[in-house]
Specification:
Radius of gyration: 22 Å
Distance between the termini: 79 Å
Low-confidence stretches: none
Number of helices: 6
Number of strands: 0
Mean pLDDT: 81
Oligomer: single chain
Shape: elongated
């Protein structure tokens, strides 16, 4: 029985390479969960006819995002670093959309939007 047990546990034992791979996968997958709330808020604000704010938020997000992939290029980062820069884009976009969602300016009752304040 002990021979069987040692063979079975050897097949299921995790080594340092497996743990390193798990950390790398988590670094690439976990930031993608930012996208869910981001896309929901984007759709809600588009549906509310808040295009003018979304355009301005897009410019702000672009200003925040552009230096990130350039830094990856300049520093010689790899694909994971580029993915993190895109995660920075998503976080910046989410921040601008959460800022708008916290205000009530995007809420429109009726068919028309009042003039900008």
């Amino acid at each position: 029985m002990s021979v069987y047990r040692s063979r079975a546990t050897r097949n299921w034992r995790r080594d340092d390479d497996d743990r390193l791979q798990d950390r790398e996968i988590a670094r690439l997958v976990v930031p993608a969960f930012v996208a869910g709330p981001l896309f929901v808020l984007d759709g809600v604000l588009i549906g509310a006819g808040d295009g003018r704010y979304l355009a301005g938020a897009g410019v702000v997000t672009l200003v925040v995002f552009v230096p990130l992939p350039l830094a990856v290029l300049w520093l010689g980062g790899g694909l994971a670093a580029l993915w993190w820069s895109f995660t920075g884009f998503m976080l910046a976009r989410l921040a601008t959309l959460l800022w708008r969602e916290r205000s009530e300016d995007w809420l429109v009752l009726g068919a028309t939007r009042r003039a900008a304040r």
